Amino acid sequence: MLDRLAVPVIAAPMAGGASTPELVAEVGRAGGLGFLAAGYLSVEAVAAQLTATAALTDRPYGVNLFVPGAKSTVDVSGYRERVRAQSGAEPGEPHWDDDGYAAKLELVTAMRVPVVSFTFGLPDAHDVRRLHAAGSTVVVTVTTPAEASQAARIGADALCVQGCDAGGHRGTFADDGVSPGGGELFGVLAALRLVRARVDLPLIAAGGLVHGADVAAVVTAGAVAAQLGTAFLSCPEAGTSAAHRRELADGTRRTALTRAFSGRPARGLVNRFLTDNGPHAPAAYPEVHHLTKPVRATGDPELMSLWAGQTYALVRPAPAAEVVARLQAEARQALSAAIMRIPPL
Ligand SMILES: Cc1cc2nc3c(=O)[nH]c(=O)nc-3n(C[C@H](O)[C@H](O)[C@H](O)COP(=O)(O)O)c2cc1C
């Protein structure tokens, strides 16, 4: 179904409140595909969002799940003390959990959600078969050609190829704990071309795409659709916090990859918390995520995570349906201009 979208634009799943049923419905109405983000939510909250989405739209939509990783063996007590001292806030208790994965998987299978995507790892092949039996299209987020090969082997129908330019968490299967992005970094076009040479599956491109010319570029490079997150963060239908919106609109901060907030590499706007703690943050997700929760909840832009893709300053805020229509018009214009510049042989 991904290759049959009226407009090859997908509003990325954005956990933490930005993705809403309203955003999903408006993107669908405009001919794109909207995503709900199940990450961090209780299974009851995900069920409520599914019901709300069904009441707003009869267009297809997607739900994204976090695949749980292994329990970390890293000692995070030193980092906890550091966060307490640096932020002045009382950190939370670091602990491992699986984000309610099994129950969420049961829910989306039972509800026959049209598109189910996974990030942070691979679903079991058995669960993929159950989703197929329920009529769902299964998408796995990958950041390297090696991850793409693994995802193809468990029966994924399509891959979301995420470049290192992307806002929010990287979907890397395993964090190497050393390099800033948890592994080798590929920009979105490089990732797309390398994955395309490795697997024969429909590919969705994600990372730093904000203009119709970017949509045209990834479609020209072989993607069936472009997945944009940051471009939809400033839409009135998104649940983005006021402080996050203000910092995005300001446009003066640079972005960086960091483990400071969650223990997993993610790209966000550089603030005091990121600068002070990023170099010291252990690769321990979700332990660090729980530890920093009260600090992030202060709503202080110097202490909270301000996820954003590398090109965030180019975003022009508008209602979601307008964003999709503008991307479509710009993409067509960019393609016509490009064809004029490339004469036939
Ligand atoms: C605030 C925010 C939250 C995100 N949450 C998720 C998520 O829950 N699941 C997921 O697969 N990707 C998530 N992402 C990553 C997006 O799927 C996508 O890869 C990214 O937004 C693309 O880069 P861009 O933001 O430059 O468009 C998130 C991105 C942002 C900005």
From TrEMBL:
Its cofactor is FMN. It catalyses: 3 propionate 3-nitronate + 3 O2 + H2O = 3 3-oxopropanoate + 2 nitrate + nitrite + H2O2 + 3 H(+). The keyword Disulfide bond does not apply. One of its GO terms (molecular function) is nitronate monooxygenase activity. CDD domains: NPD_like (cd04730). InterPro entries: Aldolase_TIM (IPR013785), NMO (IPR004136). GO terms for biological process: response to toxic substance. Pfam families: NMO. Keywords: Detoxification, Flavoprotein, FMN, Monooxygenase, Oxidoreductase. Belongs to the nitronate monooxygenase family. NMO class I subfamily. PANTHER family: NITRONATE MONOOXYGENASE-RELATED (PTHR42747:SF3). This is Propionate 3-nitronate monooxygenase. It comes from Saccharothrix tamanrassetensis.
